[in-house]
Write a structure and sequence with these properties.
- Belongs to the ATP-dependent AMP-binding enzyme family.
- Its EC number is 6.2.1.16.
- Residues 540-613 form the AMP-binding enzyme C-terminal domain.
- This protein folds into 2 domains: 88-514, 3-Layer(aba) Sandwich (Rossmann fold), CATH 3.40.50.12780; 522-652, GMP Synthetase, Chain A, domain 3, CATH 3.30.300.
- It has a 7-stranded mixed beta sheet, with helices on both faces. It has a 5-stranded parallel beta sheet with strand order 6-5-7-10-11, with helices on both faces. Strands 24-25-27-28 form a 4-stranded antiparallel beta sheet.
- Strand 8 and strand 9 form a beta hairpin.
- The radius of gyration is 24 Å and the shape is globular.
- The model has no long low-confidence stretch (mean pLDDT 93).
- It is built from 21 helices and 33 strands.
- It is 31% helix and 23% strand.
- 53% of the residues are buried.
- With 653 residues, the protein is an alpha/beta fold.
Length: 653
């Protein structure tokens, strides 16, 4: 993190001049609102004057308020922020309104499934289907505030169902069909849905999976459900369900209408990982998400009308919600359902080439997997590609290098970091700021980002807690069933009163870029030297024989000696006695002698949440003697059996 850090992408002056961000700065100047010379001046103004910034953003993107707000931000206070009081609007109305790139014959949605299935929806057809499904839901008694739950794949009918739900002012909540009964019920039962949208099955890694038994068992645990809408994604019908295609035919020709709702009216419920106790229901509002995603997609990623926007995600991850918001700025959203590695890790890149994807989004582990698998790409095969987004975990410097080497200097490496909590990125790319190796370019506009030390003071070029010192509109309206706000306050505001503590370690450099080091509650604290787990994984998983790893610092977790333990998933044929000495040498050289593990242990799998995050904190608690079922909900895990070796280790300590 020196001032001579390697630059892996530089903005093209012509592209910067044509960017919507440049247009926004020019518009601010013409309107006499703010005169800023560059991104940094614009960011400083956006966080110093949040009311002026978000109000101007709403005007620039021509947000269609039905009832005009009486103010933008009466008080800069957290929690309890009130945005745009008095305003009414509807998210779906903006996603579906005509505009550049959104004519009836323009392509709105491209769908690809891993088995080769491909379909398209024009904007006209999308509007027609949403109108029909809106009428169908209304005929089932769905109205403002009612909840629609969905166990569904990442497919066009899912998008239609969401927009129809939002158009009614009802509240959407979705899980991927690979969620088990308990995991889905733990989420959906909290919100008491009146309608369940569900598929019969899905395709993954070359196999067709029948989820009809899951749907039947889930329905039995949702007593408030009055009707089930069945999507024959796998080719079969759901028992005792209204058939999707028949519902659309029955209500074809219904008018496309939108219920105007207050700015903070719930749009959807997302969920925390649920590794300890029930997942928290995170409620986000129509207006806050609309403004945040217009900014993130329209300014930070510079998505243009008609450009194709892809992110690999399932309906159980916030990136699905982020992806479908591409409709707000007139881009064509590319939905993919299936395994990212079937039949090979090159498959998604091949899809991006054939679909002329401009912005390709994925996760850092996928990039790392491509690197380790030796995937090579030909930049000329991806002529439309101008940016690759990466999130879900810190992108290693090796990951940056692999992308740069395989895509060339013209493709922006748009590493970003944020969270489900606000359904956005707090720090990431900008069209007019370079990308430095291993770093996220800048704080997002309107995100008052800082790194705090333990005393609550901002620090530069030092590892600190990632905090936000001013509110953002997409922050949760509430947690579900948290009437007094106590759980929300405990989640974000206990450590630094009036300041949002996100739970990540971050370094903000002197030049204004940032490095994310992983979760602050799973920090490696060795001899007073704190380090995020991301740096550790970058080194360990760079070894060709290591498929996956988990590092746990037992200091302060009930252990007398405070061991640093590294669990390894090794490739076939690899032996620990050969790999361990090499890892010890590399860790000592690249991190520090303090961060060489006391022990390396081989496991078959690393426990991960349903959204793919490593379970560092639950495993740390298990090793501290906490009963496994109290440390983590197995139903919240993708691979519950992966916990067993850690439970056995704790029992033998």
């Amino acid at each position: 993190m020196t001032d001579d850090a390697e630059v892996v992408w530089r903005p093209d002056p012509q592209s910067v001049a044509a960017s919507r961000l440049t247009a926004f700065r020019g518009w601010l100047r013409e309107q006499g609102i703010a005169d800023t010379a560059d991104y940094d001046e614009l960011w400083h103004w956006s966080v110093a004057q949040p009311g002026a910034f978000w109000g101007a953003l709403a005007r620039f993107f021509e947000v269609g308020f039905v009832d005009q707000p009486t103010d933008v931000l009466p008080d800069i206070v957290m929690p309890g922020t009130r945005w745009f009081p008095g305003a009414t609007l509807n998210y779906a109305a903006h996603a579906l309104r005509p505009g550049p790139g959104k004519g009836d014959d323009d392509v709105a949605v491209v769908f690809r499934r891993e088995d080769g299935l491909r379909t398209e929806l024009t904007h006209g057809e999308l509007r027609r289907q949403v109108a029909a499904m809106r009428a169908a839901l209304a005929s089932m008694g769905v109205g403002p505030g009612d909840r629609v739950a969905a166990l569904v794949p990442n497919a066009p009918k899912t998008l239609v169902a969401f927009l129809a739900t939002a158009s009614l002012g009802a509240v959407w909540s979705s899980c991927s069909p690979d969620f088990g009964v308990r995991a889905a019920a733990d989420r959906f039962a909290q919100i008491e849905p009146v309608v369940l949208v569900a598929c019969d099955g899905y395709v993954y890694n070359g196999k067709a999976v029948d989820v009809r038994p899951t749907v039947a068992a889930l329905r039995a645990q949702l007593p408030t459900v009055r009707a089930v809408v069945g999507i024959a994604f796998g080719g079969a019908a759901l028992d005792d369900a209204e058939d999707w295609d028949e519902l659309v035919r029955r209500h074809d020709g219904a008018p496309l209408e939108f219920d105007a709702v207050p700015f903070d009216h719930p749009l959807w419920v997302l969920y925390s990982s649920g590794t300890t106790g029930l997942p928290k229901g995170i409620v986000q509002g129509h207006g806050g998400i609309l403004l945040e995603h217009l900014k993130s997609l329209g300014l930070q990623l510079d998505l243009k009308p008609g450009e194709r926007f892809f992110w690999f995600t399932t309906t159980g991850w916030m990136m699905w919600n982020f992806l479908v918001s591409g409709l707000l700025v007139g881009s064509t959203v590319v939905l993919y359902d299936g395994s990212p590695g079937h039949p090979s890790l090159a498959s998604l890149w091949d899809m991006a080439a054939s679909e002329r994807v401009a912005v390709f989004g994925t996760s850092a582990p996928f990039v790392q997997a491509c690197l380790k698998d030796g995937v090579t790409l030909e930049p000329s095969a991806l002529p439309a590609l101008r940016a690759v987004g990466s999130t879900g975990a810190p992108l290693s410097t090796d990951g940056f290098r692999w992308l740069s080497r395989n895509l060339g200097p013209s493709v922006q490496i748009a590493s970003l970091s944020g969270g489900t909590d606000a359904c956005t990125a707090f720090v990431g790319p900008a069209p007019d700021v370079p990308v430095w190796l291993g770093e996220l370019s800048r704080p997002a506009l309107g995100a008052a980002l800082a790194a705090f030390d333990e005393a609550g003071h901002p620090v530069i070029d030092e590892v600190g807690e990632l905090v936000l010192t001013a509110p953002m509109p997409s922050m949760p309206v509430s947690f579900w069933d948290d009437a007094d706000g106590s759980r929300l306050r405990a989640a974000y505001f206990e450590d630094y009163p009036g300041v949002w503590r996100h739970g990540d370690w971050i370094t903000i450099t002197r030049r204004g870029s940032a490095v994310i080091h992983g979760r602050s509650d799973s920090t490696l604290n060795r001899g007073g030297v704190r380090m995020g787990t991301a740096e550790f994984y970058r080194v360990v998983e760079g070894h060709p024989a290591v498929l996956d790893s988990l590092v746990i610092d037992t200091s302060g977790a009930g252990s007398d000696d405070g061991e640093l333990l590294c669990f390894l998933v090794l490739a076939d044929g690899a032996a620990l006695d050969e790999v361990e000495p090499e890892l010890r040498k590399t860790l000592r050289a690249e991190l520090s002698p303090r961060h060489v593990p006391d022990r390396f242990l081989v496991v078959d799998d690393v426990p991960r949440t349903l959204t793919g995050k490593k379970c560092e904190v639950p495993v740390k608690r298990i090793l501290a003697g906490v009963v496994a079922d109290k440390a983590v909900s197995r139903e919240a895990l993708r691979n519950p059996a992966a916990l067993d070796p850690f439970v056995a280790l704790a029992a033998g300590r």
